[in-house]
């Protein structure tokens, strides 16, 4: 295996990255995603793994891309916020959570991609999480605007939508 070339799938597309041209050995995954791929939805804030803004999915699980060397992503499937579309139930829940009793899931929007990707990871593993499980999953993320209540509501909405879709699909298959 040639260590001067690493391969990865980013948002469903296969890439081969050449050392010295596309990345340097000490580059973090967040740096390469932002600078080489132009995926600026991968936010960089603390660069210490403390804020969650850089969260992406690697092989379906959340990961802090600022804490991972790009070389460690060799052979991985990476999904960023840009790999989701407007019909995505998690994105929809974050966009449409606002108002009295709900709060808002987004204010300035800087932290939103990290929260959305973490929510995907949670709901992939547990489509019907408890309040405590939601709080635990989001505990590594910081929202400087203080939208935690709205973010929690958005996760609940996304989980409800996913569960309803699964129930409808199950009922349709039984007919």
Automatic annotation (TrEMBL):
This protein's record includes keyword NADP: no
SUPFAM superfamilies: 2Fe-2S ferredoxin-like (SSF54292), CO dehydrogenase ISP C-domain like (SSF47741)
InterPro entries for the chain: 2Fe-2S-bd, 2Fe-2S-bd_dom_sf, 2Fe-2S_ferredoxin-like_sf, 2Fe-2S_ferredoxin-type, 2Fe2S_fd_BS, Beta-grasp_dom_sf, Diverse_Oxidoreductases
Matches recorded under Gene3D superfamilies: 3.10.20.30, [2Fe-2S]-binding domain
GO molecular function per UniProt: 2 iron, 2 sulfur cluster binding; metal ion binding; oxidoreductase activity
Source organism superkingdom: Bacteria
CDD domains: fer2 (cd00207)
Family matches, as PROSITE patterns: 2FE2S_FER_1 (PS00197), 2FE2S_FER_2 (PS51085)
Keywords: 2Fe-2S, Iron, Iron-sulfur, Metal-binding, Oxidoreductase
Pfam families named among the record's database cross-references: Fer2, Fer2_2
Segments traversing the membrane: none
2Fe-2S ferredoxin-type domain mapped to chain residues: 4-84
Protein's name in the database: (2Fe-2S)-binding protein
Organism: Anaerotruncus colihominis
């Amino acid at each position: 295996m040639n260590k001067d070339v690493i391969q990865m799938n980013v948002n469903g597309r296969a890439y081969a990255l050449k050392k010295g041209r596309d990345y340097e050995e000490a580059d973090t995954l967040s740096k390469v995603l932002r600078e080489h791929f132009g995926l600026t939805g991968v936010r960089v804030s603390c660069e210490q793994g403390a804020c969650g803004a850089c969260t992406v999915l690697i092989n379906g699980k959340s990961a802090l891309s600022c804490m991972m060397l790009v070389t460690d992503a060799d052979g991985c499937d990476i999904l960023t916020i840009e790999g989701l579309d407007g019909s995505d139930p998690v994105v929809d829940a974050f966009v449409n959570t606002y108002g009295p009793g709900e709060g808002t899931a987004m204010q300035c929007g800087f932290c939103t991609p990290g929260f959305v990707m973490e929510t995907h990871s949670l709901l992939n593993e547990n489509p019907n999480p408890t309040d405590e499980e939601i709080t635990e999953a989001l505990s590594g993320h910081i929202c400087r605007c203080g939208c935690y209540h709205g973010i929690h509501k958005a996760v609940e909405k996304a989980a409800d939508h996913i569960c309803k879709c699964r129930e409808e699909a199950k009922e349709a298959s039984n007919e």
